[in-house]
């Protein structure tokens, strides 16, 4: 009962204090709004600040008038307990946000500029500098970009920037936040506490991005991140000291609000692109700590010292508190690159990684994958970093550890080596990966200390040969035993190098099985050697190629104990051999398995079964024929079939030496797909061109296929109604309806008479006839000649013409998607860099498409985007002559494809885009001819200039002929054209 009364009294006091605080804040705000001079505002703020903070009123009293000075000095000072109660209520309720808005908006706009400096410090800034820092940050940061009536209030923003610089940097506000979050408020649950931490961390790290241009230098990203990082590290040190003081051994493993705030702040700094600034403060401190532990003189081993010495473990706790996987990877990557530029040895590098990552490496699979997958297969670090990564993540022991300890991790070593070799040995990796990545992975494979001497020798040999390819004058020797030698890469040798023995701590010899990784004893090894010897002797007896051998006898010999004296067994064996080797027909054994493909959907299914090499080969055999037949299903399976044909691996499904034949079938099938179903095939094939899931050889194949398809479409024949060479009806000289035939004809011809149509009862046209005089010596075979439309069921040969080009309608579908994204760098796609071969192929394909569209309207439309692409500096001034030659070829194709009449029309209409583009071709080709060191580029540039001159000549003639037409029709032209002063920039 007494406890309940005490609680009621406490709640009553808190409610009374809350009411008093709110009433006081309301009175102060009202006084500020009614104030006539600045001293009234100062006195009003002082009356509230005195109840919240311990103030020296005389420090600023001399800067105000006497009538207000006496009021300030004579104000009643509350007790410390009451002041603490007021402080808690003021900052934990709505009082502070309300008062802060008045301070930051009303006072800052109207009065702050008139405040004496001492008064600004003691009765204005004090509300922010000595308040609850988390509430202050949440209030101040939004005012960095305060708009009023659609306008940025610069005075409000500059005041908020000043207060944040004082609060967070000069007054160590970030350190105060770390201390404040170590205690969870009673009226907050864990989820609310975590949300508040995340929100404040986001606001604190966003200050440089939200600050205005030209704001204080302290809020610039460089200085700001550096200052808050120092405070965050200091907060982590205080956290660990507090934990260590609470228990003699460092047993506390939970993460409180302080360390969670520090980890969240680290993550957000990295997300905002300042990981290098963060690590510039972290690395010197952690390197100093590691070197202090590695100094000789300690009674403990190095491993024991790192695990037990206080003041080091907060690093791993910070990394554990970072929940953003991107931030962890970014920090790790930047850390390795920065350590590589410093004088860090292998032992120091290992322990730095251990301090930061050993806990999360053991607990989080994503971190283990980051080190063993991304950092070994996807990235390319300096070699010193590679050694640290292997030592920490694969060997999992310091570099100075004895061999006995390292051998305990041989299973992990073998697994990692097999995984690296699986990637390193793929043809796609050699074709598509950059040279730096290949060298990096080669070094990783070579540096893993495999228990097998053969594997080590193979890795040494590979690294040595690869290094000579890159830099012949600087061969790479991975160890002292590395030498040039011939290695049996097919594993057919029977020497003892195939198995390697390593001594472990008990002194027994063990043999590492390369397939299972288990150890075999010496006795087992002896038994295995005996079997190998018997097998070798057995193989030596099979030398006569004409000898008839029963396979069953081989099995019996292998299973027997060497008893060969049983004559009955020999006779039975011989009889069995003769009967078992009778010839029989094998041609029909697999007829049910080799069914012919009759539908394209079956071809798609067979090509997707990569494990059925025979099915893939048969599908490639019939794919082109089925596509050329143009079945109804073609448009429905076009996308899947194109993707499958591009992604199928011909080398995996064909015999050695027949890869080129399968590759040719695949490409012919793709060409047939594009020719017979252009719109359904071009969309998926253009997407695959920029897909990260294809390699360089597949991209080149795609471009070759598109080029061949464009040429085939350009040479395809199509029939169409022949256009007459002259006008059929002349109406200009006669005043009669246009549909009547002309009366022009030989003398003596009668007039035209209308007759009824006889070809079709539904004919909507009229026919006419007239009598013609008989020519001398001509037999009269009819009385009239008819003029009318031809019968629909009779088409004479001279009325049909054959077009030799089906490509122009599909030119845009070929070119436009292929031109999008060539300058973007993605994972596995870098056309402007290492994939310049693909870029050259792409430009050549585009030039071929322009040539196939020559003299068609599509060429005029597509020339402009292609010229924009070619004129970009990254392409026209590419370092590789192969690309420059492709650009010259494409530019020449544009000159051949454009109709001079179109260029002349564009000039007359005032459209200068095509003129500027062709002028660029001329000037660029001229510069290539003058300065390019490649002979072929020079010759192609001269040919391009010749084509340009021909284009300029033809365009000039078209302009001259257009002048007479313009004058005849009376079309008004701009003054420069009418005066004949147009300049052809060709």
From TrEMBL:
Origin superkingdom: Eukaryota
Domain (TELO2 ARM repeat): residue spans on this chain: 275-446, 447-489
Keyword terms of this UniProt record: Cytoplasm
Biased composition range(s): Basic and acidic residues: 771-781
Location in or out of the cell: Cytoplasm
The UniProt record lists the keyword Signal: no
InterPro entries documented for this protein: ARM-type_fold (IPR016024), TEL2_C_sf (IPR038528), TEL2_Regulation (IPR051970), TELO2_ARM (IPR057348), Telomere_length_regulation_dom (IPR019337)
UniProt cross-references to SUPFAM superfamilies, sorted A to Z: ARM repeat (SSF48371)
Residue ranges annotated for the Telomere length regulation protein conserved domain, each copy included: 599-710
Pfam assignment, any one: Telomere_reg-2
Ranges of biased composition (kind: Acidic residues): 558-572
Molecular function via GO: Hsp90 protein binding; telomeric DNA binding
Segments of skewed composition (Polar residues): 513-523
One GO CC term on file: cytosol
Start and end residues of each stretch annotated as Disordered: 502-534, 551-589, 771-791
Any single biological process term in GO: 'de novo' cotranslational protein folding
Family to which this protein belongs: Belongs to the TEL2 family.
Matching PANTHER family: TELOMERE LENGTH REGULATION PROTEIN TEL2 FAMILY MEMBER, TELOMERE LENGTH REGULATION PROTEIN TEL2 HOMOLOG
Descriptive protein name: Telomere length regulation protein conserved domain-containing protein
Species: Centaurea solstitialis
Organism lineage string: Eukaryota, Viridiplantae, Streptophyta, Embryophyta, Tracheophyta
